[in-house]
Design goal:
It is built from 22 helices and 14 strands. The chain is of the alpha/beta class and 510 residues long.
Length: 510
């Protein structure tokens, strides 16, 4: 293999030749883990790729590895068949070769290399076996893809191992790997011995990491996500998006008790967790309990992004990494689906005077809403408000907290309707305080007005002048926009004025 090809490994080709790129061609990534084999095909915005295709098969390659030192024979056969299926899908979509990596079970098993050779012979898929520190680094980079500028500790729990990595300033720092995977821990039959072993390993990891307490803990891996889903069920949490779901130390303790004192099969069905995954949850929750006890994080965030996303991040030029994944995704959506692509930034400038005290975090949500304000126009008018809310709260959007998702969805709902009462989304509104609900309403009504004032995509129709002390809103339109001002635009302006509890003035030309 050439030195250049090694630089692209394990993709065999460069994905981001041009740092200015906005879009990513389809890329298939295959993750051969100790518990599952998963194919993800990425597409869409380069900085915030969407999941064009996502399928996993629970193979349990690492089951029994601690006792036998070899891959689970049944799991190995299932994995080869799964990879053959994924290769056929990729061939049909024209995205071969697949990029494939294998983690703890394959790298530790005596027949790991033999398995890799068998897969290549039968499917043509070449698997790269990565070591523990590399797995930790890629998982941490996956977190950075979703949370640029994030800091804290990333913990990736697989079936046969657990990796830790520091992140801060956009970089991955110290990395460690351990054998705390639930499939391995199942070999310890005594509960007392299991808890003592977990405690000693976690304490040793803490000592070796030299990690300060009070940081944010990012959880990567299917078992962590399953625990997050159980925590949601216990709390009656209204939004079931796992990415960016937050837990506190007390909630982890309460959920551990909840798992240990409830029927696992009933809990599995209620939470929509597979049987194979649920079998590992009682062990995984003990590991999480010790992590929280020893590392004392200030909060705990579930990440849907991990090693697969980290592989994409690895190839991104620094200029692309530094972009906001939320804004990049919304720009891509506007360019692809809006009727007048390019009007979103004009609309953002138009509504921005209404939020003079918005910090950079709120500013980016307002910007995102303006970019998305017209991407659902194909939906039937009776359902547009509902469709936009649902899309914003459940879409694959990085760099977005749960409360921000609901704010974005509510603003877009008010882009199409003045009413929110009686909506079946009302339970989600409790993730916002009354002031945030009012701000989302104002933003939505402002976008509803601005959408009446199209000229050219990059041409401003006028401006809003907001004087909050005097409670006075003036719209000043250019002469060129005069024909756009009619009964509907006037009614929408009055609706916005009413939301602001203000006096309104209209000035055209001059």
């Amino acid at each position: 293999m050439s030195d250049q090809a090694k630089d692209w490994a394990p993709f065999d080709r460069p994905l981001f030749d041009d740092p200015q790129t906005r879009a990513l061609s389809r890329v298939g990534v295959l993750d051969v883990g100790s518990n599952s084999v998963r194919l993800v095909i990425f597409d869409g915005a380069a900085r915030s790729p969407a999941y064009f295709y996502n399928e996993k098969i629970m193979c349990a390659l690492g089951a029994g590895l601690a006792e036998t030192g070899r891959l689970n024979p049944v799991g190995r056969e299932r994995a080869v068949k799964a990879i053959a299926r994924f290769a056929a899908l990729a061939e049909g979509l024209g995205i071969m070769p697949l990029t494939a990596v294998a983690t703890a079970a394959v790298r530790e098993a005596a027949d790991g290399e033999e398995f890799v050779a068998e897969v290549f012979a039968k499917t043509g898929v070449r698997i790269w076996i990565i070591d523990g520190p590399e797995e930790a680094r890629l998982s941490a980079q996956g977190v950075l893809l979703g949370w640029p500028g994030s800091y804290g500790l990333v913990c990736d729990l697989g079936g046969s191992s657990m990796e830790l990595a520091d992140i801060g300033g956009g970089e991955v720092g110290r990395r460690l790997t351990s054998a705390l995977g639930p499939l391995k821990l199942k070999a310890i039959k005594s509960r007392r011995a299991l808890l003592a072993h977990i405690r000693s390993v976690v304490e040793a990891l803490h000592l070796e990491m030299g990690q300060e307490t009070g940081m944010r803990l990012f959880l990567v891996g299917g078992s962590w996500r399953a625990i997050g889903r159980v925590d949601m069920a216990r709390r009656g949490y209204p939004l079931t998006v796992l990415h960016e779901y937050r837990m506190s130390s007390r909630q982890v303790t309460a959920t551990e008790d909840y798992i240990l004192h409830n029927d696992l099969e009933e809990l599995r069905k209620r939470c929509g967790i597979s049987s194979d995954r649920m079998a590992l949850v009682p062990i995984a929750i003990h590991v999480l309990h010790e992590l929280v006890r020893v590392f004392k994080p200030k909060d705990i965030a579930v990440s849907a992004y991990g090693i697969r996303e980290g592989m994409l991040y690895e190839q991104m030029p620094q200029e692309l990494r530094e972009r906001d994944p939320l804004i990049e995704s919304c720009r891509f959506a506007e360019a692809k689906d809006a009727r007048l692509p390019g009007f979103g930034p004009v609309l953002f400038d138009f509504v921005k005077p209404l939020f003079p005290r918005a910090d950079w975090q709120k500013d980016r949500i307002i910007h995102a809403a303006c970019l998305l304000h017209d991407v659902s126009w194909r939906t039937h008018p009776d359902y547009r408000a509902e469709a936009t809310f649902d899309a914003a709260t459940r879409a694959n959007l990085g760099g977005l907290k749960h409360g921000e998702r609901v704010f974005l969805g509510l603003a877009l709902l008010h882009r199409y309707t003045n009413r929110r009462e009686g909506s079946h989304f009302e339970p989600l509104f409790r993730l916002l305080n009354p002031r945030e609900i009012k701000e989302a309403e104002i933003l939505g009504r402002a976008m509803r007005l601005g959408a009446m004032l199209w000229l050219k995509a990059d041409e401003r129709p006028g401006q809003l002048i907001w004087k909050p002390v005097r409670r006075e809103l003036t719209i000043k339109l250019r002469e060129k926009a005069r024909p756009l001002w009619g009964e509907v635009a006037d009614a929408r302006f009055k609706s916005l004025v009413a939301s602001l509890e203000a006096q309104g003035n209209v000035r055209i030309g001059g």
